[in-house]
């Protein structure tokens, strides 16, 4: 069964896979066990692997894909962009040749990519993989991408061309003047109190919020999502309490897996916070030490006419900080100092650690995931 194929997962994980791969669910990942009783309404299985950067998601996904005749669907909001390789820890060319990857290198960095687009693209890729008789393995750390992929996207109305033009006109001057705070207050006054929590300069989502309000009279948060269990999770208050990776693998009863259209087998790789943060700091240093690393890729973004924090690609951690650092160097005639460089490195590392912390907080409330301690010896 699948547990004999999952190289590197701990014993506890293997028992969980045993449970989810029992013959009553139909499709098997391997042929060592058969089910003699025909079962109606069989669901195809999809493996989902997530976790903070540096915990081994890519390595595990590749190993599973090779052993299970699978293909990988990237759920990473930066790996979709061509040219952003080092900063997104994109799989190498040889890895992508060995195992087919979907949703990698599909856009130029000047283009925005939304969670709705990801949902459509990832679901189509999944169907194509299943039709070819292979196993879909979805991997990445973008929590909202994975939430929509598993539970479906909310039934939010689409704005008419007239409404979209009206919203664009209202926000255009504020965007040109880079008056983000005033734009947020405009949308808050229009009816979306949650707009104040958007990432700074996320003009796409701010416009989308105003479009929804003008189309429906309600903010985005008012709309129902496909499954009740998903709505329950959306309403759960996120906390920053500690999480014991040794005791968090069980799935709570309130998640109604029977409502989902596939059988999702989901894992979140984790490690003790201090170890994780140390690994992230080293990883950031490595990304800058490479001859064609993050700084080279950030320079290319600037040469393409993009500014930091101006769209999806240039808001990405690492690229935004590197672009801002390079702009400061250019303003100073191409000169910099060791102190300025280390300040940039420290900012890059801090942003990466904070993102990992937010990922851990997010996935504590995604009860479909089995938590695995990736720092312990593999068995």
TrEMBL record:
The keyword ATP-binding applies. PANTHER family: TRNA DIMETHYLALLYLTRANSFERASE (PTHR11088:SF60). SUPFAM superfamilies: P-loop containing nucleoside triphosphate hydrolases (SSF52540). This is tRNA dimethylallyltransferase. Belongs to the IPP transferase family. Its EC number is 2.5.1.75. Keywords: ATP-binding, Cytokinin biosynthesis, Magnesium, Nucleotide-binding, Transferase, tRNA processing. It catalyses: adenosine(37) in tRNA + dimethylallyl diphosphate = N(6)-dimethylallyladenosine(37) in tRNA + diphosphate. Its cofactor is Mg(2+). HAMAP family: IPP_trans. It is an enzyme of class 2 (transferase). The lineage of its organism: Eukaryota, Viridiplantae, Streptophyta, Embryophyta, Tracheophyta.
